[in-house]
Predict the 3D structure of the following.
Amino acid sequence: MRAVKFSLTVIIALLVTTPCLFSISNTFIDARVSTYNAHFVVGTGDGRKLLYGFPNSIWSSKTTVRADSFNYIYGNDGTVTELPHDVGNTINHSAFSVNNMDVRQILSIVNNQRTNRNPDTIKIQYIVKNNDTINHDLGLRVQLDTQLGTNDESPIMVQNYGRVLNDTQWVGDPMPEAWQTLDDYYNPQLKAEGGINYGTATKPDRLIVGLWARMDAVGNEWTYTLNPAAITDTAVAIFWDPVTYTPGQQRSFTTYYGLPDSSGAELDLVKSVDLAGAEYGNTLSYTLTYSNTGTGTLGGCFIWDTLPWNTTFLDASAGYVYDSVQRLIYWNVGDISTPNVPENKWFRVIINMYQGTEVRNQAQTQYTDSYWNDLEVRNSNEVITIITQTPTASPTVTFTQTITVTLTATPTPIPFEFEHKGPFPNPAIDKANVGFWLSKNAEVDLIIYTVSGEVVNKISGNFTRGNNVIPWECKNEAGNKVAAGVYIYSIEAVTESKERKRFFGKIGVIK
């Protein structure tokens, strides 16, 4: 459930009857800036959220100015010296002053810092100048309240670290290059990326990924104590620690947030079928086209597909392994470098007589992303072949000269099937993958218990029909490695129509 967020700023916003904001936008990215305090939110050009509150509830992402050991919220405190205003439709300026220190915020649309292909990124820049006759100390913290689409608990990954499950901090060297957030960890449709240590970004002194409610609490703006509890409502804080400014001295600080375009390893998996319409007994030929379109090496890649329930396997391209019990076909394609030329795998099936009114399925892939240091599971597009033939059994059976009975077969509806494939490897050292197969889309919960019944961790996600895996990194909810031993788990799938199936199993953990 999305966390409820509340502040005095919200009350003020509710009193305003018309939205008071500026927008710098194009077809890729859209940043909205409040006219009264210069707080901002970011979304996509087609209206999807990349920060909480987009497009017009602007308050939960904010910048803290640490001036002479006191905290000031940019735009709320101090003296406004320049109201927010747009320069064209791509830049927004504002400025405020505290202790005779001028802090200027410049938001601008720039090309992607990795590929330079598309203007899909917001450059967040602060220019600080000491206008006083004496020295002053000043630091900055940019707090971004992430929300990808409808998911306010959007998972966050950090370069060379992987998925962040609890409050985590990076200080000094080595500072990661980037962080990324997704609308869904297992089947992402929307991604956003923050660039903190590449391009022209100013390397921060600290990076914290944590729970927004803790990060936003009064007293935690600068001195923040990491909490071992699991993160739900995610947020990111980027710090540049206070430094001394002599009279007239000026410094600039930059970070980026926008669409990733291409970062890390990214397997593009497209599935196609040769027939959009077919009859019972026809052969369907499926092609799986794949390539690494990202900027990192893709390791240990498996591509697999589950045969549609109403088909029979015929043959496949070289190197396949077919499990007739699980109705699973897969290829171990190994490591894929970048850039990669698209390659293909194919297989063929025969449509079973009088089963169903359509044939549909979806391929999946699993690989390790060397850039994000993370196991990624991705789905292809779904393909559908409509069965155009009316299923009628023959011949007509005549009992008398005047009564004729025609036997007509009724198409079989797709049943809900949930096949539990068990964990692999088992026992595990660092990671166990719990595999399963679904005949329908479902929400799946994996709960790990101690042998005495205490909950160790819970991992949930929305999965599509076909083969899937949920990786458990042998950690508890606090993100700490569990002790060696035997653990019990339950895995339960629930469809939209509330069909429900559940299995239990054991996972051994060794050191």
In short: The radius of gyration is 27 Å. Residues 41 and 53 are 7 Å apart (CA to CA). Confidence is low (pLDDT under 50) at residues 1-19, 393-413.
